[in-house]
Amino acid sequence: MHKEAAIREPLILGHKTYHDITEDVCRPIEDKAPRTWYILFAIALIIGLYGVGCILYLLGTGVGVWGLNKTIGWAWDITNFVWWVGIGHAGTLISAVLLLFRQKWRMAINRSAEAMTIFAVFMAGLFPLIHMGRLWLGYWVLPLPNQFGSLWVNFNSPLLWDVFAISTYLSVSLVFWYIGLIPDFATIRDRAKKPIPKKMYSILSFGWSGRAKHWNRFETVSLVLAGLATPLVFSVHSIVSFDFATSVIPGWHTTIFPPYFVAGAVFSGFAMVQTLLLIMRKAMGLEAYIHTKHVEYMNIVIMVTGSIVGTAYITELFISWYSGVEYEGYAFFNRATGPYWWAYWSMMTCNVISPQLMWFKKLRTSLLFTFIISIVVNIGMWFERYVIIVTSIHRDYLPSSWSMHFPSHIDIGVYVGTIGLFFVFFLLFARFFPVLALNEVKTILKSSGESYKNAPDDHHDAPDPVAHKVESAGDDQPAVEAPKAEAKKELTAEEAAAKTSALMSKLGAGSAEAKDDLKAISGVGPVLEGKLNEIGIFTYEQVSKMTKEEYDVLDELTGSFPGRAERDDWAGQAKELMNKSNS
Amino acid sequence: MMAADKVIYAMYDDDDVLKNGAKKLVSKGVKINEVFSPFPIHGIDPIIGVKNTRLGIMAFIYGLIGLTLATVGMRYFMIEDWPMNIGGKPNGSYLENMLAFIPITFEFTVLCAAHGMAVTYLIINKTLPGMPAQNPDPRTTDDKFVMELRLSENSGFSSNELETMLKDTGVIELDQKEI
Predict the structure, then answer these.
(1) Which of A299, A283, A271, A288 is nearest to A356 (CA)?
(2) Which ipTM value was assigned to this complex?
(3) Global confidence as pTM
(4) Given an 8 Å threshold on Cβ–Cβ distance, is B73 in contact with A2?
């Protein structure tokens, strides 16, 4: 089993068992949706439908309904495209890059971050498609033999590279996400009581049964897909940046664009993950799995990538001056002081200053502050794309064609509509899909769960808490356990009797007739129950009176599982069981 | 028609207990047919004799196919069939123009490797839409772990002997089925 340093904060808080994890994640799916879900869904749906209406109007009328003109041929459409693609970078970064780096904290957030990625890339893909104007001819971007002779698409063009990059990214992310979902759908399928959900999840889970060989393949597939997706993440936004960097427009013609765009994408993607998860963990009661530590880790990523973005801005400014090219210099001077100064300074404030506040531990561990900053960063990153695109082209080489960009209401409607659609998808995801990677979170319960980590000291020199349970269950001890077991002094019969009576006087007598089912206490199996009964412990009431002292005596008497009773908090559990049976 | 066989399902509530139990059983010469678990149990494969998958190699092969297709395709489209001359700069030979083809070559390689592997994975697992679930107990996708033993594969033992041995490994439930 993977060991983790004791000083690392546990990733799963509270005394969770495997079953608790299943319960916590599946309950929101199985219960009725709360009223707020319906309200949010209705709002998102109305906004989304308005966006669809705008898109249909655009397709019916033509791209002229956007606020574009001869000088500014690219504005909100491509800004929104890059913004959404950027947001779509966090999910695969979390699930692929962090998987390769063996970052366990990713497990609680990767499922929802990946869902966010996929929905964000859907939204992104929409913009180039509707920008074609005649969407029904969209297949022209594919290298298909056609009636114009053997005229192929231009493989030298970064715009075509983008088609390949985005479609590869979207489909690979989708497959990666779905392969992880299959075992979790199987969990929901096996719990489902009503026939329709059962049928639905049974189809979605592809008949997954959890065989050892399948898990073996599952892990290899996850690892190889992560290995493939990692360079893919970096390539996608590099290629998006080529759309600009390979042109000869001052302000775009920049070699630092690929790394700068990738850092910006991760920056904005993590900000969006924070925005969504901070709400989701609260609404769905997942505070034990996604807690301050996860938020802090993500804030550190935001801080680092934000610093890279800030450095890139300043490098750009410096190079535009140092290059001595007056057009290049003017492009940047115009950004900061021209008619779009407000966009430039919003971008600078949101993206350069706000992430630097994360150096303060107090701020980066504050959930409210994180939420505010995450929204600030999302706004800042939208302005970044707007500044790069619009301010670079609105004053081109010919002053006679200088112009300004004013968005039409269709521009705004399409953009706001994609936000609505995005939330429609995300709310449906949160309602019907397991929002936590159940099978992955369960694998870290023993290494990073609080109840296992904060075990008493003897746990650290004991080889493995669970191995002791085997010892108690099986008569012959496994070889590894032998030295420890031998070192322990065997109790003589009298000592044992004395200790038993002392223990029983504290706990009070119980009788075999009024026996409770002690197996209901997690950590107690049939064998252990027998031993407890032998000593004279039969009821929850007796167990509930136990303290550290009694646990120790018990450990000596049963000669096994040191610390297990305390770690599992038998007394607390017994109290709960008592309350349950009384009510 | 296969001869009647008996399957024994031993259920555990802890992955490590199952693993230690499996180790003990295997050392006594018992053959464990299958293990069903809600998450991957690390280290169980060598104990019950599950060989490591070769899907990684398959992914590499699919990647090579993608690489070849992209190279051959772009060479044909851009160099042979319709050479472009953009701004007085002809495409020339494949090698001269290759730099511009690298992004798509890379993307297509990843596309083929990822999808090829994913499809292979689903097919060899026989996990496809509409397939029936085969786990013996619905709790094995929640928090229980089941070991499956077949009598026909353990001809040296009677079913009673197997059950006695299983009981020593900390099982919480035992079940039998004739197939």
Answers:
(1) A299
(2) 0.90
(3) 0.79
(4) no
